[in-house]
Amino acid sequence: MSAPVPVFDHSATAYSPRLAYAMALASRLAYEAEADIERQAAAWGFERVRHHCTRFTPPFPLEDTQAFTMTGDRMIVTAFRGTEPRKLRDWLSDVEGVPWPGPGGLGYVHFGFGEALHSIFADVQGALAELRDKQQTVWLTGHSLGGALAMLAGCRLHFEEPYLTADGIYTFGQPRTCDRALADAHDKAFAGRMYRFVNDKDVVPHLPPEPLYWHAQALRHIDAVGAVRESVGLLGGFGERMEHLGHVAKDMWDGAGDAFRDHGVAKYVAALERLLVQGGPGA
């Protein structure tokens, strides 16, 4: 898991492509075994690691929720693990369940995401409270389902435990997670601190469908040539977006095509690594 460029800048306080790349690496690391996580965290300069794993039986095909928190003298990073796209598909297609109440009484969230975070949140919150003993900056990240959990964890910490408000949230291939009321409150609370990366034709950020569920803003779209661009719309023009959405249903059911291939965490890591090494828009 070595990187060709310097990875974590523990003094970072604001957005940078280097920090985005580092957070993508941490999101990828969340899929690994505990011993591998600890070894890599130490190589990045994080002396302490806590693992968070809660097994539960939701009405969805997910066996557990996992994350890890790594801590140095100046920075703390919590990375939430994602899940396989085919498992996530069943979560995202279920939009008829009772919504989970949003943090601080603001709006609501997708029931599966709310339950998954609830199963692990106390452990994550406790670790952050324990490990933040030198006023370190706090960062949350995750890929796929992990991105949804990172965003929701940021909301819960901010609206319920403001002394642990995250300094930044970086998500990769995050699905829509909450209603518009919570998305708007999140955008105000995390203006300039939330960055939601979408890789080219990744299908997952299109789901669950609007208008029941909404995205946070601060999109960073990685286009087909690897440039990272800020954008209000997920894709360039309206026609292009509609053409892409026409392929979503097919890709969701057959698990093939660019829409699924573009979702892999390795795709996000590779795109941000190229950006750092080669430069270009967004670097």
Can you describe what's shown?
- By secondary structure, this protein is α/β, with parallel strands linked by helices.
- The protein has helices spanning about 15-30, 35-45, 85-95, 110-130, 145-160, 180-190, 240-255, 260, 265-280; strands at about 50-55, 65-70, 75-80, 100, 110, 135-145, 170, 195-200, 220, 230.
- The strands form two sheets. It has an eight-stranded mixed beta sheet with strand order 1-2-3-6-7-8-9-10, with helices on both faces. The protein has a two-stranded antiparallel sheet with strand order 4-5.
- A hairpin with a 6-residue loop joins strand 4 and strand 5 (about 110).
- Helix 1 runs antiparallel to helix 9 and helix 4 packs across helix 5.
- It is globular.
- Mean pLDDT is about 85; it is low at about 230-245.
Q: What is the mean predicted local confidence, pLDDT?
A: 84
Structural class: alpha/beta
Largest sheet: 8 strands, mixed
- Please give the number of β-strands: 10
Element-level helix/strand string:
HHEEEHEEHEHEHEEEHHH
- The fraction of residues assigned to DSSP E strands is 15-25%
The Rg value, from CA coordinates, equals: 17 Å
How is the largest sheet built, in terms of strand order?
Answer: 1-2-3-6-7-8-9-10
- What is the helical fraction, as a range of percent? 40-55%
Q: Please tally the helical runs, counting DSSP H or I stretches of 4 or more residues.
A: 9
Shape: globular
Segments where pLDDT lies below 50 for 5+ residues? 232-246
Span between N and C termini? 22 Å
